[in-house]
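Write out this protein's structure.
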Amino acid sequence: MADLSSRNPDWWRQAVVYQVYPRSFADADGDGLGDLRGITERLNHLAALGVDALWLSPFYPSELADGGYDIADHRDVDPRLGTLDDFDALVTEAHRLGLKVVVDIVPNHTSHLHPWFQEALRAEPGSAARDRYVFRSGRGAHGELPPTDWQSVFGGSAWRRTPDGAWYLHLFAPEQPDLNWDNEEVRADFRTTLRFWSDRGVDGFRVDVAHGLAKDLTEPLRDTGDIGATGEESLLRVAPGSHPYWDRDEVHEIYRDWRTLFDTYAPPRTAVAEAWVPGARRARYARPDELGQAFNFEYLEAGWDADELRELITAALLGARSAGASATWVLSNHDVVRHASRLMLPPGTDPGAWLLSDGTEPALDPAAGLRRARAATLLMLALPGSAYLYQGEELGLPEVADLPAGALQDPIWEQTGHTRKGRDGCRVPLPWTTAGPSYGFGAGPGWLPQPPSFASYAVEAQAGTEGSTLELYRMALRLRRKLLEGEELRWSADSGAAVLDFSRSPGWRCVTNLGAGPVPLPMGEVLLSSVPLSGGGLLPPDTTVWIA
């Protein structure tokens, strides 16, 4: 069994990490917004679930132009979410319960309300204050055109003009100006931030947009042209490491510097990269002298297809091994359609278009989606490496696809001229009880409306209920902890075309039927099944079993 004790420097290699989106987890003060005290009061839920760590999405001061990822102060708590004392209390209680704490670090940009950026707006062109960000003169006879054709991930130009005629770079929302990581003051300030949270007991960091910090800012700036401005596909059209602003080779100097800092702590602080890059490049971020782990987004984006998943799993394990890291697995997070819905979309369906139809084109069967999600979860938890869970998936929550336009908060909705609905559907506050104005999330309604169906998914409805999704997660995590040994798997040579079948040491196996019909159930003792088995020696479709 893996050693996840507090002093074990390798605790992260096969940990189960639970992502908390603070504004949607639990509201202690009744203002409709989740907060740190709410999380602390609900930590027993995570301990009972059996996870090893919680990862906190941003809780820093923010005007919420991008759900908290527009940060005005990287070393404080948003007053609507609590105080630094509340944060310290959360860490203390988490550690008392045996839970590690991982926090988001957002180094690519700040909020436009950050004191540095406000100073830059007041400063002269070419000043030291402006050099902390990426300011440039515009093109055209009067500088009226953006400096380049670079595009924002959220849509439109990645440049915004200031009143004095200069332009600044924002690869995300205009309220998120990009920092200049060629500036030593920026690098030093983030070293201070990493120490600030590490000294408060934080065990690790999730690095937002890890592939975006280094940019080619040599003059004249390069247009992307037909490379494509966003997405992994743009990286495939250029020589590795040479895109103007994504996944440049120079970014790794930054993370080697961070690793030196992390290793001054005992145990060393961990880190995982959010790097939307092709798999062969992702391993670089996970090297032991850099961040140590990187999210495997190919797995998240994969369809419900045995051949595709087998190939991706094999490649991810090889890539992690080549970097000296462990693999990572994730099915849902705060940026994607929840997998209880997403895995039911027909191949080729655009999740954004499905959301724009309020989840009606195509209409999905929630029961079938939950069945497939449960099977996918047991498959993921059997894989070697770390599993990252997203809050609410242990309840089987589907995507809330029919949020009314007037309730949407994600800047993507406005930035794209109402052509992309955004990510609010996976950020709807959690249901804890079967009744109440927000199903136990808080004393009043939550910041996003919950559908009436959430009552049946609530923790209160599922805790202690045999066969519930919550109890399946609890059983799986207890059993996983007992079975875990080594970081290898061995594929079965005789599994069917639509079956994933692999063995783990010491002598247990995972079998998933992704086909349309039942298949023979392998011999052995069934330790756990994603749905009850009806007998007859068959494994039904959309079902995973663990077998001794």
